[in-house]
Design the sequence.
């Protein structure tokens, strides 16, 4: 028998998600996302420019995973 090792999950790649993609992933609209951010219950947006923001994909995915764990 050969010795097999299980590789840990590869490191998650950080991407910047724009608002439409965050809305699609969470099911929340803009106002609710910003309300949760203000309450400290959602990852903060990153300033990309004067009129542009985005979110770290890893932070959003972790936030979603935490909500799913809370359900159980």
Sequence:
């Amino acid at each position: 028998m050969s010795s097999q090792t299980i590789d840990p999950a590869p490191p998650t790649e950080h991407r910047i998600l724009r608002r439409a993609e965050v809305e699609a992933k969470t099911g929340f609209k803009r106002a609710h996302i910003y309300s949760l951010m203000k309450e400290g219950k959602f990852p903060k947006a990153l300033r990309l420019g004067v009129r542009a923001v985005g979110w770290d994909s890893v932070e959003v995915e972790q936030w979603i995973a935490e909500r799913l764990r809370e359900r159980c």
User: Anything to note?
Assistant: Residues 37 and 43 are 6 Å apart (CA to CA). The two ends are 38 Å apart (CA to CA). Strands lie at 16-17, 46-47, 53-56.
